[in-house]
Amino acid sequence: MxxxxxxxxxxxxxxxxxxxxxxxxxxxxxxxxxxxxxxxIRVPVVEHTDVFVRSIGENTDIVEKExxxxxxxxxxSLTLRPEGTASVVxxxxxxxxxxxxxxxxxxxxxxxxxxxxxQKGRFRQFYQIGAEAxxxxxxxxxxxxxxxxxDFLSDIGLDGLxxxxxxxxxxxxxxxxxxxxxxxxxxxxxxxxxxxxxxxxINPLRVLDCKVPSCIEASSDAPVITDYLCDDCSAHFRKxxxxxxxxxxxxxxNPRLVRGLDYYTGTTFEITTVHPGSQNAVVAGxxxxxxxxxxxGPSAPAVGFAIGMERLVELVSDMDIVKExxxxxxxxxxxxxxxxxxxxxLRKLRFSGLWCEMGFGASSLRSQLKKADRAGARYVFIIGExxxxxxRIKYRRLSNGEEGYLPLDDYENMARLISDERx
Length: 423
Ligand SMILES: [Zn+2]
Ligand SMILES: [Zn+2]
Prior knowledge:
Layout: H1 18-35, E1 39-40, E2 46-48, H2 49-56, H3 61-66, E3 68-71, E4 77-80, H4 85-94, E5 104-113, E6 125-134, H5 139-155, E7 161-167, H6 174-187, H7 194-202, H8 213-218, H9 231-246, E8 252-253, E9 267-273, E10 281-287, H10 291-294, E11 302-308, H11 309-319, E12 329-333, H12 339-351, E13 356-358, H13 365-375, E14 379-383, H14 385-390, E15 392-397, E16 403-407, H15 411-418
Helix pairs in contact: 1-5, 1-11, 5-9
Bound molecules: zinc ion (2 copies).
């Protein structure tokens, strides 16, 4: 295939049987998020560039280097969304959703776009499942969200989860910490990487986020934010931990968990798995109590998270616990003429909600049975000369070879049989 006809670098197709795992994860998320009162929201993949610059922050990696930004034909600067929260907040304010009873809870799924260096497991179009709860600043909502994430991740079979939490303070207490941190960093600034030296002026907290080993080493005994929290922030954080304890959610405190986006305030969290070769976070989130106001909305505290789909799919695939079931029926017609009867049966059974397949071509019974087996079908129906003469179909349950007959027009019992109900 010609290079320029292939999918662009960093963009991937999702094809069967992998799509089944995607659907399985999304289905479970929908089901479990609903139990917690989250409603689905669908926002565009394109927004005015300002939506992201103002919320994520001008001096973040995303805005500086990773956005797909372009001018449309009328010269407007638009951007393919690099994350979901900014769009959801824009939607929340624009549609006046804050007039609904609080908390207003929403979730979304869909593709995000970042111009990152493509590497294993990282894509320029990647998918997230995210959720946001607005209008309540009580730590109970933070705890509830972490509880929901725990339910979801264990439901899809992930174990060995490591949940880390932190509080990065508010406008009242963070400046004091920022100052203390800057004072600490200044003495050894030459020992830090170029990015960190740049961050020192603009956003020193992000130095704690740096993955360069020498930076981690150099900042290992930096002052921690939790020692600087104001009374409100520390009471909020204390209450959150109490709720988590009461719900038996395991967590660790990580005072270095500062998150790379500017809009976070108070609680931040990350969930990582301890599966081999995957130290990266599967979930990241936190509070952003001031963002709605930034968008011209009322004062509406909020908390949310995003889950990386590709990572989850990879983990679930590796565990090999989710298998797509095969069709309920594989129909075999031993002669082209009998197919006229066969397709009528197929139509009725499919209409009643069953997944049915049929063998094509003039291959032998033996090779069609092989196909049925390979497709993972539960039953085969066989229509041959004897069956047509007697006005019945022959059925066989593939798992145990059990056989029998049903009248050619007894669709109701055919459906029951395939659904494994008693006839
Ligand atoms: Zn505070
Ligand atoms: Zn660094």
